[in-house]
Write a structure and sequence with these properties.
It is a multi-pass membrane protein. This protein has 250 residues and is mainly α. The chain is built from 10 helices and no strands.
Length: 250
């Protein structure tokens, strides 16, 4: 491959900019934020199942013959949502790992077959970091001497990838399942043994707790995140109540 083909007709700096954007696109989510993704997925699924169970409870207050079977429906909904979220989150994570693996293979191929161009890219990157002659070529020689170290440097410096931050997809699916089952079990037991007014309080407490957990995991604007989550949940359920009320009355 010629130098022109490798850089796609652009200069080294433009090539590096495109490579960095390429790496960032792969690491942007795909529902995977720059934080412990298994905890984020767990918190989101917990909030979602709480909303779904709240809607089911709300529906049972309008359809009275549904009320005796509410715990059974709640258990079924919890199980289905657990399976769906676990499978979906794991699949998304596996797809992301596949794209990361493809980028690693592409970069490894470039290191093996385009060493002069890789050296030029590396020199440009470290010159931008402030390295100058005579230290610059010595640093480049050390990095070029070890293909594995060079691969890691190019992935992190050129593509902006942090491979050590990636979690196994099964871990993400497992934490999602555990969180959903915990919330679903608590709500289902409440439907079995608590009166309606206490179930309302229980569901509200569960949603607030899940919102606080998600905000804590994200570690940014915790208070604002909790307020927004609770407000969105309250508005959604309020609109659902109005819709069901008007629908049944008509």
């Amino acid at each position: 491959m010629s130098k022109h083909d490798h850089f796609e007709g652009a200069g080294v700096k433009d090539h590096l900019k495109r490579a960095l954007l390429k790496g960032r696109r792969v690491q942007e989510h795909t529902h995977t934020p720059p934080l412990p993704s298994h905890l984020f997925a767990m918190g989101e699924s917990m909030k979602e199942i709480t909303i779904l169970l709240s809607l089911l409870f709300l529906l049972s207050t309008f359809i009275h013959h549904l009320a005796p079977s509410l715990p059974l429906f709640a258990a079924a909904l919890t199980l289905l949502w657990t399976l769906y979220k676990a499978a979906n989150n794991s699949l998304v994570a596996f797809e992301k790992l596949g794209r990361l693996h493809q980028l690693v293979e592409e970069e490894h191929h470039e290191i093996k077959h385009n060493r002069p161009q890789e050296r030029e890219e590396l020199t440009a990157m470290y010159r931008l970091k402030g390295f100058e002659e005579p230290l610059l070529p010595q640093v480049i020689d050390v990095l070029m001497a070890d293909d594995h170290r060079l691969l890691m440097v190019m992935l992190e410096e050129e593509l902006g990838m942090q491979l050590e931050s990636e979690e196994h997809p099964i871990k993400r699916g497992l934490f999602t399942s555990v969180g959903t089952l915990i919330i679903g079990t608590i709500a289902t037991l409440g439907f079995c043994f608590f009166p309606s007014w206490l179930n309302i309080a229980l569901l509200a407490a569960l949603f607030c707790g899940c919102s606080i957990f998600s905000a804590y995991v994200q570690a940014v604007r915790k208070t604002q995140s909790v307020i927004w989550s609770i407000a969105i949940g309250a508005v959604s359920l309020g609109l659902s109540y109005v819709f069901l009320s008007s629908l049944i009355q008509n």
